Amino acid sequence: MAPKTKSSASGISCWFKVIAVLVGVLTPIWYVLEQRLESFYVFDVDHLRDLQLRSLQVHGNDTRAVVNYIVDELSTRAASANHINHDEEWVFNNAGGAMGAMYIIHASITEYLIIFGTAVGTEGHTGRHTADDYFHILSGTQTAYVPGEYEPEVYPQGSVHHLRRGDVKQYKMPDSCFALEYARGWIPPMLFFGYADTFFSTLDFYTLWRTSYVTGREMIGNLLKSKF
Ligand SMILES: *[C@@H]1O[C@H](CO)[C@@H](O)[C@H](O)[C@H]1NC(C)=O
């Protein structure tokens, strides 16, 4: 028995070494990338806000035209022109108990830009994320709740709901509501939240495949175009 005990003990210490080396190597890389996150971004928070307001001024409640206006302008803007998905590949999205659909305009390791919404309303958990999330309301209203409050936060058409990295809320779209959602920070960890309901609730593997295909294609495409 003695040699077996010895070998499993040395096996464990070997694993500890591997983990220690990985942590030792990855931590500085993560730290350097974290400092430089800003330089990877192809979208600008102030520009997106301005674009949201102008698209609504021009097209009002014609949300399809609003979305086209936004995508057209991002396609001509130097910083993002090369990073836009023009195909409106709408897919269902179930996450945190809420259900809607999304059109992925852009996805990378550090950002995503989507149109997210539903024509019938939904409610759920925002998820606790490793990215800042800017939810630009294009039509309808979103409400949000944080424990300790007795009144909802209300985000009508034309407003922005900024969910800070690490924060969490309960949110609701009481009726038809569509938004331009922009997330910047670390996107890959958010995908677990984005997929959990499909794996453990809906089992809609067609949607899972479509979402993975489009997200993967956009992320890899944008990674190859980025200037590391
Ligand atoms: C858009 O729809 C909302 C809600 O139905 C309404 O209050 C608003 O006046 C409409 N805006 C325009 C420009 O028609």
Automatic annotation (TrEMBL):
Pfam families: ERG2_Sigma1R. It is an enzyme of class 5 (isomerase). The keyword Iron does not apply. Pathway: Steroid metabolism; ergosterol biosynthesis. One of its GO terms (cellular component) is endoplasmic reticulum membrane. The chain crosses the membrane at residues 12-33. It is found in: Endoplasmic reticulum membrane. This is C-8 sterol isomerase. It comes from Cercophora newfieldiana.
